[in-house]
Structures are given as C-alpha cells and as structure tokens.
Amino acid sequence: MTSLTRVTGVRVFDGEQLLPDRMDVTFGTGGILAVDPAGSAVGGEPTTDIDGGGATLLPGLIDAHIHLHGRDTLQQLAAFGVTTGLDMATWPVDKVAALRDIAGRDGLADLRSPGLPAIGPAGHHAHFVPAEAVVTSATEAARFVDARIAEAVDYIKIVAEAPGDGGPDLPALTALVDAAHEHTKKVFAHTATPGAFAMALDAGADILTHIPLGPPLDAATVSRMADNNTIAIPTLTLMDGIASARGVAHAFAGSRESVAALHSAGVNVLAGTDANAEPGAPAQVAHGTSMHRELEMLVAAGLTPTEALRAATGRIADLLDLPDRGRIRPGLRSDLLLVGGDPTTAITATRDIRAVFIAGTPVHRALGDAAHRSDSSTPSAEPSSRVVQVPE
C-alpha cells in the first residue's frame, strides 16, 4: 500500500485566496485527495504527517517564461518550488521530447514548450536560431505552424521586432497568429521594445512577454491590452537585469510603471522570469530563485501579495491551459510548496521554503538551499522552527 502525505494544521493558499481556517491536506503520487478542516481527517491509508503549524501550503509555482538547458534546469526550478516551467524556445525536437519524458515526476519540474520560435530574417535572434524558423510571408507562416503542430507543441512562440529591425513584418506576424489560432494554439510574443510590443498587439498575439524599458506604455496601448484581453508577462527580473547591465537603471522605472498601469486597467499580469543561462544573453536570470524575486517585483509594481501569488498559480493555470494544477483542490496534481510564514501578507515568505512536492514526491532541495545561501539580491524570511522538514 502506497503511503500518503498529510500536512496538518496548515494555512492554505488555494491558488485564489487564503482559506479562513487551518486545514489538513492529504495527497499522494496520484494527486490531492482531501482538504479538510484541521483535526477532522480520520483513518484511511497510512500517512506521513507533517506539522504545518506556522506555515503556508501553496500550489507549486508556475514560471510563465523560462528557457530549458537540460535536466539541471528542471532540477533547479523544482528546488525553489517552481513545479512547472513554460519554455519559450528549445530545439531540436528530439531535445524537447527527451526533456518531456523526464519532466513532472521524480522530483523534476514539469514543462510546456513551443519548440522552435518564429523569427525574422535579420533580427537579433537570427544569429543563433536555425534558418527554418525564419518566417517572411503568410505561406511560410502556415508551413511553420503546421510543422510545430506536427511536433505536438503546447503553444506557438513568435519573436516580434520593431519595424525595420529584421523581424517578421506585420502581415507575417498576423499570419502566424491566425495559423496558430486555427489550430487552437495560443501565441506568445517576444516584445522587448516599444515597436515590437505595438506590432505584436496589432497582430493579435494572445500573450506579450517582456515590458519594454524606458517611458511607460501610453494609455491607448494599455486600453487596447485590456479591451483585447491580451495577457502580459512582464519578466521584470530580466528587464531590471538588462537595465542594470546597460547602466540605465532609471529606465526600469518605466517598466514598473507600465505594469502598474496594466494591472490597474484590469489586464491579466502573470509571473514569468525569462530564466536562462545563455551565453551572450542581455541578462542571465537564475532558474527557480528568480521566481521569488519576480513575485516581489510584481508587488512593488502595485499587485497585492495575494494577486502576485495568483499570477504564479491559479491565474496562470486558468489562462494558459493548465487545468490540472495551480490550485489546491481534491483531484488536482499534488504539486505543492510549503513555506514558513504567510506570503499573502509578506510576499518574501515564499523564500522560506520548507518542502516541495511534485506529483506527490518530495523534492531534494540541496541545490536550492545552496543557491539561497548565495543569493543576496533579496533577504529571505526568518526561518520558523515549528515545521517538520520532509526527509530528503
């Protein structure tokens, strides 16, 4: 008989809100079995109990913008409570397939991927993305999307550039979006500059990733985002890194103001970091630990801690076609994060990680503990001694 795990007397953020009472949450490798008022769970299969007093149980975090490098990427994400990562460009198809085979079990983060992204003939990405990714016409757009669908991708990624910067022109971008929608696939658009942001919005992309540095988005653009139900993934951690590397830290203030305006207008703002270890990238962003900084930056930009947590759990699951995760509810995947304190009142509490489970399996966190000790970008919460750590 398979042993279950039960976290007792714990606060529960269920992906939408902090439940009003302490709960006992029982789960196994097959999913979440029960969410009961504390002390009411009785009998049943053998369980390993964890004292949740003083801690909060969250759904595993979902990073809506990462770049895969291998098994180590999935390990590092998991070590920091990021139990699902949405990849934004990985090729060849055999590499993606091999990572899919191991993802989401045995303590490794799960993944979703678009495979190869669509690019233009002369933009920045043309220097390192294969030539088969170049799209310059509606015919090529249809062919590109058909090829990705044959590879069983989860969504389509397009790289928008400002007009004249070598990316796909507006007709090609629009054709890519239309072809993806014909296959019921959402379109993520790379939009790192104001011109690229405007083109991707004109093309009808569903999700715009990156908020440009510099002056904040104008009111008309913000209104269009809201009216079109376009989703924003600002990747504030990346944009701050780029601004710092270029010595234009003041430009990041505009990005943060853009996020505040989008949020105030009702645009869905989701948590994504652009975690990557690419040589020559505008800024490298550590996998896993960066999600905690992203949550803190979203709060600094005007989201409440609860809204920021939704942006990395239930809201992402709702909007990005992940119905089996992002919430603590019987029947869903047992991807869970146990942290000290209450992150709905102090978002930094997410850094005080006590245990991570992926599909009910405890994650070995030695990698995460070492990285936390070396990460001085944001202080972690004070540890609590009232929770029993899951044996690793």
Automatic annotation (TrEMBL):
Record domain Amidohydrolase-related: where: 56-362
Bias (Low complexity) ranges: 376-385
Region annotated Disordered, chain positions: 369-392
Classification via Pfam families: Amidohydro_1
Protein name, as recorded: Amidohydrolase family protein
Protein source organism: Rhodococcus artemisiae
